[in-house]
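Record filed below.
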Amino acid sequence: MKTTKLSGQPIICQLLSFIPKELVQKSVAKFASDRYYKTMSTYKQLVFMLYGIISKSGSLNSLCKCLLFLEGKLCYLGIDKLPAVSTLSDANCNRNSEVFADLYYNLLDYYKDELQSQSLVLPINGEALGEKLKRFDSTTFTLFSEVFKGAGRKPLEGKKKGGIKAQTLLPFDSLVPEHIELGAAAKNDKDFLGQLPVKKGYLYVFDKGYVNYKIYSEWNEKGVYFVTLLNKNASYNVLSDNPIDILDIAMGDGVLKDQTIQVKLKGSKEGLKLRLVTYKDPHSTKILKFVTNHTEYKALTISYIYKNRWTIEPFFKQLKQNYQLSYFFSDSQQGIMSQIWIALIANLIFTLIFCRNKQAESFTTVVSMARSGLNTYVCFLSIIKLEKLSVEDRDNEIVQMTLFGNLEGGVFQKLNKSP
């Protein structure tokens, strides 16, 4: 009996089919990234690195050895020769990582409508629309060499490890980041606010590590909103108390105060007027102080908006858990950044597959399934949709060589002995 779940291409090629060749050519032309390379084109580097990142290869040599299983299977991609370790290493070291960053943004724009339509975000507290809210935070990838300066003090014994920090902007109504800045882990988070491309009428949520009153003032003039925590040592004057829901006062939880305050602003006599919302968490009983320049939302809405910022943390966990980002195939700045950008491209592809299949399996399961069969010709999308194997699919004589004799039965068959 023939199976109908086979594809004409291995799973790695099926995944790469989500990357239109014209988008790759557009990025290559923009950065002239193939100018000095005869054999290792940008697209080939993308294919080989994507394989290593998804398969979680433990070294560059291991990656190139594992690629031998794909010999003759990449002709669908126009690749008829596998790379030497030195050739791939040179490309990682010397090719500008910006070409992969540009490809990521091109893919994001290409699939933007589909990715947003698959993520349903209800208005927070009935008034804050998800499409107008954006959250950002940073995560650090530890390196074993001081290529990028790491944060913290130097250990008493041994060399200090390097680190690269990814400043990430994630919309509330999408599952993939729309802006990423890569830099040394030692770089101050406050500098990122000035680099962030903001939009008028949007609200940005971040933690107190990004506090920068000068940028707040500039955002006020541009009509850009924000919500963040107030630093414990912040100095301010209370200008007025705003009315709050009396039920919050009676219950002793929720919003405790809603005030207008003024903070000192360097170079300004008047200072900067902001809104301060004091909130008591009903679960942890902690008192939190949120500062914002948005005056229209309810005080409780401001609190809920900040609470939803924490949903960016599972994204960082998802990125580090499912792709090879604990070991880097290059010790050069460009190679390290290229690997992160290609991991982000892989994450975008799997997010798209995850959404198209209506979240039939958990995200980690989808990536794990692909990892275990990158070299196989099974139709990946068909396997994801299977709730359970049919009787025919469980028959070992169909899916693999018979392990036992016919008299003893197969692995999934009961012994059928006559009395």
Notes: The mean pLDDT is 85.
